[in-house]
Write a structure and sequence with these properties.
277 residues, 4-stranded antiparallel β-sheet, 24% strand, DNA-binding
Length: 277
DNA sequence: ATATTCCCCTGGAAGC
DNA sequence: TGCTTCCAGGGGAATA
């Protein structure tokens, strides 16, 4: 569910609820999420720490504290944060509860348990923890440029759709916005990276940023399973032009050219074979 | 080295 | 109605 716009929306919604709050205790209600929950380290490192900031790296969130440690979080497919009173009973899929000294608490719910919560070390000079050093540039950073894409693409024969999902190439794009970005850029998702010109790379950079920007402005709301905070789905819904619209008329070409669904690397891709070449 | 396949887990929708 | 199958936006390990 959550791709960059959704995670960014969560970050903004969550920040006022955690900034300046001091952790009193933690409850881990399941032994593992995606990986085993290191409850001993969580208990050792978080209580007594005050959250100062929430940073986003791709689809990851890092809760920075006033100490040397941070809380690394990934929502996986169904992860969601929720605020509650410490005495509130756990919801059915509540996995972790963080209680603050001011009698509020933060809960992490995750039906499918694909999420991540872990302690990370925060070096003074680098905002990004070592665990996330493998991530590629943020789509909005200047590092993500046509030249950069061209340099990464020219030796690669994999389909460009798969490349966009590679978090070491660019961090934050998921299955939905990959399809939507390629539609906007009028590039076929099955085209080999090496066959994408510099001009098309520039179009792709522009398209990725435009699609993600619009999604963030709409509150990141895409489809089921996602809520920013406390089940708030946001007022708007993203306009998805091809994702999930197999066999519907292409928004650009009309009824004579239906959107096609194909499977790439085990995931659905939607595109118009007519205007995306 | 690079690119797919499989797997983790659970619920909901669709098909029979 | 009830059972089965498929699908889902994540990442990472295993495999080709």
């Amino acid at each position: 569910m959550p791709e960059l716009p959704e995670v960014e929306t969560v970050r903004r919604a969550l920040l006022p609820h955690v900034a300046g709050r001091c952790v009193e205790s933690i409850q881990c209600r399941v032994p593992r999420l995606r990986t085993p929950l290191d409850s001993a380290t969580l208990h050792a490192c978080l209580p007594g720490q005050t959250f100062r900031d929430i940073r986003r790296f791709g689809k990851f969130l890092v809760f920075a504290t006033n100490g040397p440690h941070g809380l690394l979080a990934h929502l996986g497919m169904t992860g969601a944060f929720r605020t509650a009173l410490p005495c509130a009973p756990p919801e059915p899929y509540e996995r972790v509860a963080i209680h603050f000294t001011d009698r509020t608490s933060l809960r992490f719910d995750d039906v499918r348990k694909f999420g991540t919560l872990a302690i990370c070390e925060l070096r003074n000079h680098s905002p990004c923890p070592a665990e996330l050093a493998h991530l590629g540039p943020d789509p909005f950073s200047s590092r993500f440029s046509a030249d950069y894409l061209r340099s990464r693409f020219h030796t690669s024969v994999r389909p460009v759709k798969n490349a966009l999902l590679d978090q070491t190439l660019v961090a934050g794009i998921g299955n939905i916005y990959a399809s939507e970005s390629l539609f906007r850029a009028q590039i076929s998702p099955v085209r080999a990276c090496s066959r994408i010109s510099a001009h098309r790379c520039a179009r792709l950079v522009e398209a990725v940023r435009a699609v993600l920007t619009q999604a963030i402005q709409m509150g990141g709301t895409t489809i089921r399973d996602y809520s920013s905070l406390n089940g708030n789905e946001g007022k708007f819904r993203i306009q998805l032009r091809v994702y999930g619209h197999a066999d519907s008329p292409c928004p650009r070409c009309g009824p004579r050219h239906p959107v096609r669904r194909v499977v790439q690397a085990g995931r659905s891709t939607f595109y118009c074979p007519n205007c995306q070449q």
